[in-house]
Design a protein that fits this description.
Elements lengths: L1 H8 L1 H4 L8 E11 L18 E9 L4 E7 L5 E5 L32 E2 L3 E6 L2 E5 L45 E3 L8 E3 L21 E4 L2 E8 L8 E9 L3 E4 L2 E4 L5 E5 L15 E6 L4 E2 L5 E2 L14 E2 L10 E2 L14 E2 L15 H4 L1 H4 L9 E5 L6 E20 L4 E19 L6 E9 L2 E9 L1
């Protein structure tokens, strides 16, 4: 109930720009950790034991498409490590889409460093593979172990068999690849990264050992890529293998289902471009997810609290301090609530006007708890109540007993007739399906009534 009212009453808080953001987050997956057996191979080049292969995914709203990954003068693209990146010398490629499916069984080719937009292999046998998180992969693996040639040392049982707990699911169990029947065909690039597949001096090529890529004039793009799972919509953009500490600053362009595109950038060192109403450009938006290691805005995720922040990038329940209390904040109303912190004027009751509700129920001072005609006892327990509320009536009047249940705004939720009572009667009310909050029960013994409140928690 509170959540619904909050949406209705505070649209400026809930319908912030973040709810329309096409970028949800960026995921950094530890894909594999190399061991001493992987380090024996010399065909693919030197791969130190303990090197980590990371996969970077962009998580988007359903039906959004990733259009480009880029670096420009105001928003430089940076990928760095404290140690060189590994590039496989025999089968490595600059762009993930150019990786040979047939070559994935050779030495350490599956750990090559590359950049891409979703597609992680070429097409072979009618299959084109796209990157998925290993936790989302359900079709097994064609990489490592029995599917590997053992490298230059001919390691029995193949390479890429490490089962380090830090890498999650072993690579021999799930390879983080799945097929798509349709895939982007119009690829392009700009500067710094050689998309022809020949000599490349960046961290994605195998001619020069490097630990840093930093460029203000680079681009990889296609007509738009969605994830294998259209609902999760997670698109891989890079695979990076290094023994050092990884960091990056990325900039991406996403187009939504209506054709509007937005640039998401890692820093705001230059003024962010505003929305262009004359074109389908929603402007530039800063996302802390695009800068790694992450330094995220972690605030309250619960809209029942005043500290709720729809623009948060991660959840911190400890920041949820002030629960929202809706109520009448007009001191002239008979149901003025001094504990309310969100005013709802339609809840206010005044003599002669109570917004089509029973003022005697809403305002107990008017109903008169100490009604001089009362000759019975009426008790509610436990209070607060969670699942069951006990209603106890003690009377010798031999009169018919009824009660009505109201929510805090005075709406009738339930009416019940207990029957003619003489003595003590207990009625059990199931409140397990009701929202937490304040409720009112008005009990009638004959023509005389008493109103009492209880809290459902």
């Amino acid at each position: 109930m509170n959540r619904i009212l909050f949406i209705l009453l505070l649209p400026l808080l809930l319908f912030s720009a973040s709810l329309h953001a096409q970028l949800q987050k960026v995921i950094v997956e530890k894909y594999y950790i190399s061991d001493q057996f992987d380090a024996t191979d010399t065909i693919g080049g030197t791969l130190d034991s303990g090197s980590v292969t990371y996969r970077i995914y962009v998580d988007m709203q359903p039906r959004s498409k990733l259009k480009r990954v880029y670096g420009e003068a105001n928003h430089v693209l940076k990928i760095t490590s404290t140690a060189p990146f590994f590039n496989n010398k025999s089968r490595g490629r600059i762009i993930g889409k150019d990786i040979s499916v047939a070559g994935l069984d050779e030495n350490t080719a599956a750990l090559d460093t590359w950049i891409t937009m979703g597609q992680v292999t070429g097409t072979a046998g009618g299959k084109t593979y796209f990157g998925v998180l290993k936790t989302q992969d359900v079709d097994g693996s064609i990489i490592g172990g029995a599917n590997n040639d053992g490298g230059s040392a001919g390691i029995s049982g193949g390479l890429l068999v490490n089962t380090n707990a830090d890498e999650g699911i072993p690579l021999t169990t799930e390879d983080g690849m799945d097929t798509l029947l349709t895939h982007p065909v119009s690829w392009g690039g700009l500067a710094s990264i050689n998309f022809s597949g020949s000599y490349d001096s960046s961290i994605f090529g195998n001619k020069v050992v490097a630990s840093q890529f930093e460029c203000s004039n680079t681009l990889i793009q296609n007509e738009g890529t969605m994830g294998v799972d259209s609902i999760l919509n997670q698109v891989i953009i890079a695979q990076l293998t290094t023994k050092g500490e990884l960091s990056f600053e990325l900039n991406i362009e996403i187009v939504d289902s209506t054709g509007f595109y937005t640039d998401y950038v890692a820093n705001d060192s230059a003024p962010l471009l505003p929305k262009d109403p004359g074109h389908k450009f929603r402007g530039e938006k800063l996302s802390r997810y695009l800068k790694y290691p992450f330094h995220l805005l972690c605030t309250c995720p619960d809209p029942d609290y005043m500290e709720y922040n729809a623009d948060r990038e991660c959840d911190n329940m400890d920041s949820c301090l002030t629960r929202i209390v809706f109520g009448c904040m007009d001191v002239n109303a008979c149901n003025y609530n001094p504990n309310a912190n969100v005013s709802v004027s339609d809840l206010c009751c005044y003599p002669g006007y109570c917004n089509n509700r029973d003022i005697a129920t809403v305002c107990q001072t008017i109903a008169g708890i100490n009604n001089p005609g009362v000759d019975f006892e009426f008790n509610l327990f436990p209070n607060p109540a969670h699942d069951q509320l006990n209603i106890q009536v003690i009377t010798n009047s031999n009169k018919e007993v009824n009660y009505e249940l109201y929510d805090f705004s005075g709406r009738v939720l339930l009416k019940k007739n207990i029957g003619i009572v003489s003595g003590t009667v207990n009625d059990h009310l199931d409140i397990s399906t009701y929202d937490n909050g304040l409720y009112v029960i008005r009990l009638y013994v004959g023509d005389i009534s008493i109103t009492k409140k209880f809290i459902k928690d």
